[in-house]
TrEMBL record, chain A:
The protein's name: TGS domain-containing protein
SUPFAM superfamilies, per the entry: TGS-like (SSF81271), ThrRS/AlaRS common domain (SSF55186)
Coiled coil: none
PANTHER family (alphabetical): LARGE RIBOSOMAL SUBUNIT PROTEIN ML39, MITOCHONDRIAL RIBOSOME PROTEIN L39/PROLYL-TRNA LIGASE FAMILY MEMBER
Positions of the TGS domain: 55-123
Gene3D superfamilies, per the entry: 3.10.20.30, Threonyl-trna Synthetase, Chain A, domain 2 (3.30.980.10)
Residues in the signal sequence: none
Pfam families: TGS
UniProtKB/TrEMBL annotation, chain B:
SUPFAM superfamilies given in the database record: Prokaryotic ribosomal protein L17
Keyword entries, A-Z: Ribonucleoprotein, Ribosomal protein
A GO term from the CC aspect: mitochondrial large ribosomal subunit
Keyword field contains Ribosomal protein: yes
InterPro entries: Ribosomal_bL17, Ribosomal_bL17_sf
Family the entry assigns: Belongs to the bacterial ribosomal protein bL17 family.
Pfam families the UniProt entry points to: Ribosomal_L17
GO molecular function, one term: structural constituent of ribosome
GO biological process: translation
Keyword Kinase carried by entry: no
Name under which the protein is recorded: Large ribosomal subunit protein bL17m
Length: 326, 185
């Protein structure tokens, strides 16, 4: 039943009910084309970085499991990821782990390990409060990221969607956020629109896309995001803040690519119940999309979730971005 | 009004006791029933964890609880308690265990001394199913996994913040109404 309902919703998801007043100005480049171009750059850069490793060297990874039980794994330097380590240990770890801890530093599940290290795998129900805050933040950040991916492709072709950014993850604010520029004047999203975005979010998440991380040079990043004025503007700032002063971290989920410092969760299927709570208009054409989601590992009853939803409807207090290019 | 405080005469059990005793079908009558229960209580004290039919486990649990609480309350110099221990425990070395091992173990417990867990059901089979009756603090590994629900897990953080916001909103509302009332008066 649920499956058929999703299919029905998704067929309508690209046609929003309250968008009749939109005037089509010029034929835009379709989002699929932009995405295809970004993906080809991403793949090329990924391949180039892999080719830089002349021959495989071995490293020793010490996995610290339950009750401080230690397992030593011999892995490939610069190629093997914590996910590969989990593949050698057990299936539950593989499915459950959200992020890894490499030498005490929080690390993506799909990021190559550069040297000998100790490894811990964290899930969404940790015993340690410090780990819990890190894991929650990674989850919240990933939800923002996924929201961006959905919003970018949710609208009809004549509406230009330009992703701006998402603020640092703050779980206590009650909602995850993505700020997006739409060329719509005074769009008031109906309850049905929200539901349709939520349905496409859920549908996308269920496809089990991994979060692939890639550190690229700022010039490559600029080429990737030349269609997005906001991102192109942000990239030099982000690059100067990085350790080398030139690199930018991008993530890929499915066919969507975005900039984020990370770390992100291992896979989109770790997101469970979700809801797009509200869309607020910030200033001219900039809309704030807000949602709330729970990990697939955590189940709460519908009343408690409705409490979270109603809180997420209020405008998130995160800093409003200032627009220069207007 | 002059009624004696019941908890001073009989120790209150920390389990739910059924109002009527179960009558097991046995040809020997009530004496046979007690014989069965004695065997169960003895086995429980001896092995500390037993698996048996649910009705009998639930029935025996009360007798075991009462025996242990009396042993804690009165000690081994009390004549009646010693007679009861002698009656309920078929193997006499277990009387020593009751007073020297179990009574000190449960001295400071605030909960019941035994735990009754529903056991696996065989299908098709006897519909009541089995139960596992155990003394708490036994040396065996736990029957059920420990369940936690920490306040720093994601859903609890979200709910906690929602609660805070709700309370502050209510406080503001109340403050607003009292202000308007005073302004009117």
């Amino acid at each position: 039943m649920a499956g058929t309902r999703f299919q029905l919703l998704s067929t309508f998801s690209r046609q929003f009910s309250s968008l009749n007043n939109v005037t089509t100005v010029q034929p835009k480049i379709r989002i699929d084309e932009i995405r295809g171009r970004r993906l080809s750059i991403f793949d090329k850069e990924h391949k180039r970085q892999q080719d830089l490793i002349p021959r495989l060297e071995k490293i020793e990874v010490t996995y610290e499991g339950l009750n401080d039980e230690k397992t030593t794994l011999v892995m490939n330097k610069g190629v093997s990821t914590p996910y590969n380590c989990a593949q050698h240990i057990n299936e539950q770890l593989l499915k459950r782990s959200v992020v890894a801890e490499v030498n005490g530093e929080i690390w993506d599940m799909h990021r190559a390990i550069p040297a000998d290290c100790t490894l811990k795998l964290l899930h969404m129900k940790p015993e340690d409060p410090h780990q819990a805050t890190l894991v929650n933040k990674a989850f919240w950040r990933s939800c923002s990221f996924l929201l961006g991916a959905i919003v970018e492709s949710a609208f009809q072709d004549e509406i230009s969607v330009c992703l701006h950014s998402f603020p640092p993850a703050n779980v206590r604010s009650g909602s995850f956020v993505y700020d997006v520029q739409l060329n719509l004047n005074d769009w008031v999203p109906s309850q049905n629109d929200l539901r349709q975005i939520a349905a496409s979010f859920q549908k996308f998440v269920r496809q089990d896309h991994i979060f692939q991380r890639l550190d690229v040079d700022s010039s490559v990043a600029l080429k990737m995001f030349e269609d997005n004025a906001f991102k192109a503007e942000q990239i030099p700032h982000i690059a100067t803040k990085s350790s080398t002063g030139r690199s930018v971290t991008v993530y890929r989920v499915g066919d969507h690519i975005d900039i984020s410092r990370g770390p992100m969760i291992a896979s989109s299927s770790l997101v469970g119940r979700c809801s797009i709570a509200a869309i607020h208009k910030l200033n001219s054409k900039l809309y704030r999309f807000q949602g709330v989601a729970l990990p697939s590992e955590i189940h709460i009853n519908h009343f408690a979730f409705s409490v979270l939803e109603s809180r997420a409807r209020k405008l998130n207090p995160a800093r409003t971005p200032e627009l220069k290019s207007n | 009004m002059n009624q004696a405080d019941l908890s001073k005469l009989v120790s209150a059990l920390r389990i739910a006791v059924k109002p009527k005793p179960r009558r097991f079908s046995c040809p020997e009558g009530p004496a046979g029933r007690l014989e069965k229960l004695r065997a169960t209580v003895t086995a429980l004290v001896k092995y500390e964890r037993i698996e048996l039919n649910h009705p009998r486990a639930e029935e025996a649990q009360g007798y075991a609880e009462r025996l242990i609480s009396d042993a804690i309350r009165n000690g081994d110099c009390h004549k009646h308690t010693m007679e009861m221990a002698d009656y309920w425990l078929n193997e006499k070395q277990l009387v020593h265990k009751l007073f020297k091992v179990l009574a000190p173990r449960y001295q400071n417990y605030n909960s019941s001394f035994t735990r009754l867990v529903l056991g696996p059901k065989t299908y098709p089979g006897y519909y009541v199913g089995t139960a596992i009756l155990e003394l708490k603090g036994n040396p065996f590994p736990a029957l059920q996994p420990e369940t936690h629900n920490y306040h720093y897990w994601l859903h609890n953080v979200l709910l906690e913040e929602a609660k805070k916001e709700f309370r502050s909103a209510r406080q503001d509302r109340n403050a607003g109404t009292t202000e308007s009332v005073t302004a009117e008066s």
